[in-house]
Amino acid sequence: MKIRSRENTHKKNIIKNLSYNVGIPLSLAKKLVDDIISIIIFNVIIKKNLKINNFGSFSLKKKKERIGRNPMNKTNYVITERNVLTFKAATILNRKINKDVKR
Question: Which CATH class is domain 48-103?
Protein backbone atom coordinates (compact mmCIF):
# COMPACT_ATOMS: atom_id res chain seq x y z
CA MET A 1 0.00 0.00 0.00
CA LYS A 2 1.47 3.34 -1.05
CA ILE A 3 1.10 6.14 1.49
CA ARG A 4 0.89 9.67 0.12
CA SER A 5 2.98 12.24 1.94
CA ARG A 6 0.23 14.76 2.72
CA GLU A 7 -2.61 12.44 3.72
CA ASN A 8 -3.66 11.53 7.20
CA THR A 9 -3.63 7.88 8.13
CA HIS A 10 -7.04 6.80 9.30
CA LYS A 11 -7.78 4.14 11.88
CA LYS A 12 -9.33 2.01 9.12
CA ASN A 13 -6.02 2.01 7.21
CA ILE A 14 -4.07 1.02 10.32
CA ILE A 15 -6.48 -1.88 10.84
CA LYS A 16 -6.12 -3.01 7.21
CA ASN A 17 -2.31 -2.80 7.36
CA LEU A 18 -2.19 -4.74 10.64
CA SER A 19 -4.50 -7.41 9.27
CA TYR A 20 -2.47 -7.77 6.06
CA ASN A 21 1.02 -7.66 7.65
CA VAL A 22 0.28 -10.00 10.55
CA GLY A 23 -2.13 -12.23 8.67
CA ILE A 24 -5.10 -11.92 11.02
CA PRO A 25 -8.78 -11.25 10.27
CA LEU A 26 -9.95 -7.63 10.04
CA SER A 27 -12.23 -8.10 13.05
CA LEU A 28 -9.30 -9.17 15.25
CA ALA A 29 -7.11 -6.33 13.96
CA LYS A 30 -9.91 -3.86 14.74
CA LYS A 31 -10.23 -5.23 18.28
CA LEU A 32 -6.46 -4.97 18.81
CA VAL A 33 -6.31 -1.35 17.61
CA ASP A 34 -9.36 -0.41 19.73
CA ASP A 35 -7.83 -2.10 22.78
CA ILE A 36 -4.49 -0.32 22.34
CA ILE A 37 -6.25 3.04 22.07
CA SER A 38 -8.34 2.24 25.16
CA ILE A 39 -5.22 1.30 27.14
CA ILE A 40 -3.52 4.56 26.16
CA ILE A 41 -6.58 6.62 27.13
CA PHE A 42 -7.08 4.77 30.43
CA ASN A 43 -3.43 5.15 31.48
CA VAL A 44 -3.28 8.83 30.55
CA ILE A 45 -6.48 9.58 32.49
CA ILE A 46 -5.53 7.56 35.59
CA LYS A 47 -1.76 8.05 35.75
CA LYS A 48 -1.51 11.38 33.88
CA ASN A 49 1.21 9.97 31.63
CA LEU A 50 2.20 6.91 29.62
CA LYS A 51 5.66 6.02 28.38
CA ILE A 52 6.09 3.54 25.53
CA ASN A 53 9.75 2.57 25.19
CA ASN A 54 11.33 3.42 21.83
CA PHE A 55 8.17 5.27 20.80
CA GLY A 56 7.44 8.19 23.12
CA SER A 57 5.50 9.60 26.04
CA PHE A 58 1.92 10.79 26.30
CA SER A 59 1.23 13.32 29.07
CA LEU A 60 -1.89 15.02 30.34
CA LYS A 61 -1.37 18.71 31.09
CA LYS A 62 -3.77 21.26 32.48
CA LYS A 63 -4.26 24.57 30.67
CA LYS A 64 -5.48 27.51 32.74
CA GLU A 65 -8.48 29.63 31.87
CA ARG A 66 -7.55 32.58 29.67
CA ILE A 67 -8.94 35.33 27.52
CA GLY A 68 -9.03 34.69 23.78
CA ARG A 69 -9.76 37.05 20.91
CA ASN A 70 -11.56 36.45 17.65
CA PRO A 71 -9.16 37.88 15.05
CA MET A 72 -11.94 38.69 12.58
CA ASN A 73 -14.15 40.87 14.78
CA LYS A 74 -11.77 41.49 17.72
CA THR A 75 -14.27 40.34 20.36
CA ASN A 76 -12.86 38.80 23.54
CA TYR A 77 -14.13 35.57 25.05
CA VAL A 78 -13.12 33.21 27.87
CA ILE A 79 -11.32 30.00 26.97
CA THR A 80 -12.16 27.59 29.80
CA GLU A 81 -9.67 25.55 31.79
CA ARG A 82 -9.07 22.18 30.18
CA ASN A 83 -6.76 19.20 29.90
CA VAL A 84 -4.61 18.70 26.80
CA LEU A 85 -2.78 15.60 25.66
CA THR A 86 0.86 16.07 24.67
CA PHE A 87 3.21 13.64 22.95
CA LYS A 88 7.00 13.67 23.06
CA ALA A 89 8.72 11.29 20.67
CA ALA A 90 11.49 9.05 21.98
CA THR A 91 15.05 9.75 20.88
CA ILE A 92 15.23 6.56 18.82
CA LEU A 93 12.02 7.53 16.99
CA ASN A 94 13.39 11.00 16.27
CA ARG A 95 16.58 9.47 14.90
CA LYS A 96 14.62 7.15 12.59
CA ILE A 97 12.46 10.01 11.35
CA ASN A 98 15.46 12.23 10.72
CA LYS A 99 17.98 9.67 9.43
CA ASP A 100 17.96 11.13 5.92
CA VAL A 101 18.15 14.75 7.09
CA LYS A 102 21.58 16.37 6.72
CA ARG A 103 22.58 18.73 9.49
Answer: few secondary structures
